[in-house]
Amino acid sequence: FSTNRVVKEHQNGAGGREEEEDCDDATSDNHFIVESQEKIIYLTLQVRSSSLPTTICCTEALLRNNPKAPFSMLRLLLLSAICTAIPVNAAIRRTSLSGVSRSTTPHRSTKEFGRKKRMLRLSKFTTTAIAGFTESSYDDDNGYKKASERRFGDSDWPQYGTKYLPKQTIERAERGNKIEKLKLEKCGSAAFEEVHEFAAAIREGTTTWEDLDIDDADVRLKWAGLFHRRKRTPGRFMMRLKVPNGLLTSDHMRFFADTVGIYPADVGVIDITTRQNIQLRGIELQDMTELIDGLQMRGLSNVQSGMDNIRNLVGSPIAGIDPEELVDTRDIAKDIDAMITNDGKGNPKLANLPRKFNIAVSGSRDDFAHTSINDIGLRPCPNKESGEMGFNVIVGGYFSIKRVMESIPMDIWIKAEDAARFCEAVLLYFRDNGSRGDRQKARLIWLIEDMGMEGFRQAISDKYDEMFPKKKGGAAIPAQPEPWAVAAGTNTPTQPHKKRDILGVHSQKQEGLSWVGINVPAGRILPDEAMALADIADKYSQGEIRLTVEQNVIFPNVNNTKVSELLQEPLFNIGYYFIPKSDKDFPLSRGLVSCTGSQFCGVALIETKNRAIELSKRLEEELKVDMPVRIHWTGCPNSCGQAQVADIGLMGGPARVEKEIDGKVKKVAVEGVNIFLGGKVGEDPFLGEVYKKGVPADYKYLIPVMKDILKEKFGAMEK
Question: What is this structure's pTM?
Answer without folding.
Answer: 0.83
